[in-house]
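FIELD: query
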Amino acid sequence: MAAINDVIVKPLITEKISADSEAFNRYGFVVSLKANKNQIKNAVEAFYDVKVVAIRTAVIPGKTKRTAKSHKKTSSYKKALVQLAPGQKIEFFKGI
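FIELD: result
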């Protein structure tokens, strides 16, 4: 699990996380379920070239959805909130 592409799945962009990034310099990512905080920190620092101060993680359990004749379960995922050092930021939509 040393590769960056195996640790970070995608950036998490929601209204709440966008407000959090403006106020507290925190950014959200969907990460691998097996990734730990050290792997997440190293991956974010290497990929975005920033200094990570703190990381909070949460495993979001899958939900049961009802279809026409059966019930299906969505996948669980792990969310990481990464706080950067003051003065640094990540631009997800650079050049749009």
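FIELD: remark
The longest strand covers residues 52-60.
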